[in-house]
Structures are given as structure tokens and as C-alpha cells.
Amino acid sequence: MRFLPALVCALSLAVPSFLRSAPASAPTNILVILADDLGIGDVAAFRPQGDVRTPNLDRLAADGLRFTTMRANCTVCSPTRAALLTGRYADRVGVPGVIRTQPANSWGYLAPGAPTLANLLGAAGYHTAIIGKWHLGLTSPNTPNERGFAFFHGFLGDMMDSYTTHLRHGNNYLRRNREVIEPVGHATEIFTGWACDYLRERAAAKQPFFLYLAYNAPHAPIEPPAEWLSRVQQRAPGMEPKRAANVALVEHLDDGVGRVLATLRDTGLDRSTLVVFTSDNGGSLPHAANNDPWRDGKQSHYDGGLRVPFIVRWPGTVAPGTHTDYAGLTFDIFATSLEAAGVARPADTDAVSLLPILHGQPPATAPRDLYFVRREGGSPYGGKDYHAVIRGEWKLLQNDPYAPLELYNLKSDPLEKNNVIAKNPKLARDLQAVLSLNIQRGGAVPWQQPAGH
Questions:
Q1: Where do the domains of the chain lie?
Q2: What's the farthest any 2 CA atoms get from each other in the chain?
Q3: What are phi and psi of 115, to 5 degrees?
Q4: 59-95 per-position pLDDT tens digit
Q5: pTM, full prediction
Q6: Do domains 25-358 and 370-442 have the same CATH topology?
Q7: CATH 3.40.720.10: does it fit domain 25-358?
Q8: What would the DSSP string read from start to end of 34-72?
Q9: What is the CATH number of domain 370-442?
């Protein structure tokens, strides 16, 4: 039954990874783990006083570097994923909004000519793989195997209508490369098992790898396995039912991440592997996610929609148990991975390498503007887009295309409670000009599939 996930990834009793650095000549493997709609307040390493238990992510943070001021490139899925894989702002590669399985409600098209992280690492001799959620196209030329990944074992679509049936609008988007497959089990366990299998194969292959493990948890529908929900209910019988279900789904995800990290240890790959864990955007408040202490959640340009957990572990390079308040974006993974692998970045890259910070040094580049955009359909949005920009301590934002601009000082008002745009008209105009230039650059790239293709 080759499509059944491995049921057990044994825990290692080996020496902790941060005490075992890689041989100097060993190439750097890269493992990027991306959660889906995971709120920063739902990882105990970022909010110890919370009600969720994430021992494996906490251990990863204890072994590595915790970024406390990282933001996703977008408040929703596809744009952040496009940015991560291309190192460009998402609208500059044709993905200002969510790519969906129904064309009439799809708001992006990944630019065919944009090289991905998988393209560049593959050309440098890496084996490249994606396991889990793709969400950047259903058909040629925008399937994973056509965008640089040698191996794809996962889900093409935007979300599953159920973690156990795996369908979306009655269609099966699960693939092993180009083959339609029908695995059995909970999606989180399936993706975990496939990742463990892949790592064991790569340990035998003796070739550097880039694995992009993109879970769909804890995205809706909130469907934790029954035994995980029961544990939470027994531990906290007074917890609100929606919250208990979300907590259980996150804790189940944490267990999956722990099994993957255990496989890295068991195979000895952890000594030469750069591991990054983060989320594609903030948690969904209607589904009882927690983004505390930040305002609002998924879909919002307030920081609850943008702030994400971000952890890097790299034995022999990153000092364990450290943290930084560097304000970066998800797509910095792109530039960091290339530099760690010794691969030159494309000249038009918008991302910044975090490598100096991983070495405990100051950033190599001057502070930059952080730009955010989302395009969306339906009556609240009308197919229009809305934007935000951060320059230093100032943040100018709009939260839907019909809302007025708002201005916040993130240094004096980090929770974005006091809109001061009326008191700072010139600053607001200056930041509007920054937005205009970014919007103009994004507007040069088509975001719908050309007719006839």
C-alpha cells in the first residue's frame, strides 16, 4: 500500500542536534515547513501563557533562533507561497490573490517565466521535493513538476473539504508527481508519513535536498482526529468547543512536525540540514485561532493577519535558544536558502538573506520597506485589491478596497489601536507614494491565465 503514510517515525535518543555540527564539507540540506493559517499565539514558544501545547515546535525553537517580528508576505495563502518560492513580491509574479479551483473566483496566475527556489537549487545539484499543499496552479505549466520540483507528493488545490476524504468540490487533487492517488487517513498524518519516507530515501541517496513540506493544517475545516480532541477536552473541560477543536488540530500538527524532525535525527541528516518553520499568514479568528497579542487575523492587514511564528535551526551555525526582533518577510527564506547553498540570487530578487542574522551578526542590508497586497472577489472586495506598507516604525494600511487608509506608529502603538493619519498628513502622503510605486510594478505582470491556454 505505497500510498499509506508511515504510521510511526521513531523518536531518537541521540545527542541533541545543536551539539552535533555537520562535517565542514557537507552540503547544506534545506527543509522548509509551512503551516497553513497557524496563529502566532498558537505556538507556545511565542506565547507560553497560552492554552495550546506545542512541545516539538518549542524544542525546535530551543535548538535554534526564534524570530519575533516576522510577517507573512500576505494575509492569505497563495500570495505568500508564490513569494516564498520566487523571492519576489507576489504581485510581481502574478499572484496578488488566492488561486482557486474555480476559475471565476481565482485571483492569480503564477508567472511562467519566474524561476522558483526549486529551479535554482535543482540546477545546483539539489534534489527538490514538495510534500503537501501546492496552491499555485492546477494545470500546466503551473504544476510542481513543471516549476522545478523533481518530486511532488501532495495536493494541488486550495483546501480540502475534509481532512479525511481529501476532496475539493468533489474533485481529487492529490498527486504523486502527475499520477492521481487516493491515500487513506488524516491529511496531516499522510503528509507527515510521506515526508519521513522522503527523508529516509534522501539519507541513502547522499545528495543534498530541498524539501518544502507544506501542511494544510490548521486551515479549515477544523477536523482534528478524535483522540486528539479528546485529550484537549479532558485537559481543559471548560474550553469553548470551537477553540478546543482548533487547539487539538494544532497539537496534532505539532506531533507531525516532531515525527519529521525525529526522522532527521534518526538518519543523521539533522547535522547538515537548515530547518525553517513558519506559517503562510495569521490564524483565522472565525475558526478560533489565536494571534495574541496582535490585532485581528487572517485576511487583515493588522498585524494579527501578518505576524507569524518563524523558527530557524541550523546546527553549527545558529546559536540555540536565541531570538531576534529583525522585521523580515516570508520570502526571505528564498534568499537565505540560496546563500546557504552557495547559489547566486536572481538580480530582480526582492527578498533579503537572513544569513548574517543566523550567524549572530547585524543584517547585511539597510532597513527596507515592507509591502503587502491582496486582491479578492465577492461583494466585500469586488475583484479589487487592498494594500499596506511598513517603513520603519510607521505602517499605512487599508483593510478592504472600500475602506479609508489608516496610519499607525508601531513603536508607540504596536497593537494598532490609535489611527493617527489625521495628525500626520504629509507622512501618509509619502507612504501612499511608496504604495503607488509598488502597485505600478505589480501591475506590469498579468495575474490571469492568458486566453486560449
A1: 25-358, 370-442
A2: 65
A3: -70, 140
A4: 999 999 999 999 999 999 999 999 999 999 999 999 9
A5: 0.94
A6: no
A7: yes
A8: EESS--GGGSTTT-TTSS---HHHHHHHHHSEEESS-B-
A9: 3.30.1120.10
